[in-house]
Amino acid sequence: MKKIIAISILVLLISCSSTLKIQLMPRDEGVIYGGIVQGNGMGSGTITLTMKDKVCSGPFARGSSNDSFGLIQTYGTKGQYAVGTAVNSGGSSTVKSILSCSDGTGLRCDFVGGGGTGTGVCADTNGKIFDVVVM
User: Fold this and answer.
1) Distance of CA 65 to CAs 6, 43, 68, 85, Å?
2) CATH number of the domain at 17-64+92-134, out of 3.90.320, 2.40.128, 1.20.58, 1.10.10?
3) Distance separating alpha carbons of residues 130 and 41, to the nearest angstrom
4) pLDDT tens per residue, range 20-69
């Protein structure tokens, strides 16, 4: 039984890993920059962006969430029982990211979202502000 529970949790974690697209637009220009968000299924991962002649990359981590997770165990007659998993993933999460760029600058980003989408704001070390969409 422990083996089944361990395999179920592993499958759940693997299925939660994902690759998403990210787009940024500076507030003082009309150009859109793009990149990818590679999640590990455990609330963290990496972001890689291409902006003009530089590449920015770094980690992100979930700061808080109102998602819930639990294991359910029910008992029946004659000593029979069943084990299952209950996941409520309809909530939203806040995410923080710090990215280092190939030209020596950096980006600090804050996001809010859920269900594989989100929005946010990034600021670079020169004070430039970017609006962000994750999809």
Assistant:
1) 24, 10, 8, 19
2) 2.40.128
3) 26
4) 999 999 999 999 999 999 999 888 999 999 999 999 999 999 988 776 66
- Is residue 47 helix, strand or coil? strand
Structure token pair of residue 33: 């920059």
Q: 84-105, pLDDT tens digit by residue?
A: 665 555 578 899 999 999 999 9
Name the amino acid, one letter, at 95.
V
pLDDT at 67: 61
**Domain range summary for the chain, segments of one domain joined by +:** 17-64+92-134
109-117 contact pairs (CB < 8 A, 24+)? 109/47, 109/60, 111/60, 114/67, 114/89, 114/90, 115/89, 115/90, 116/18, 116/20
Find the helix or strand (DSSP H, E) in which 11 lies.
helix 2-16
Contact 45, 37 (CB under 8 A): yes
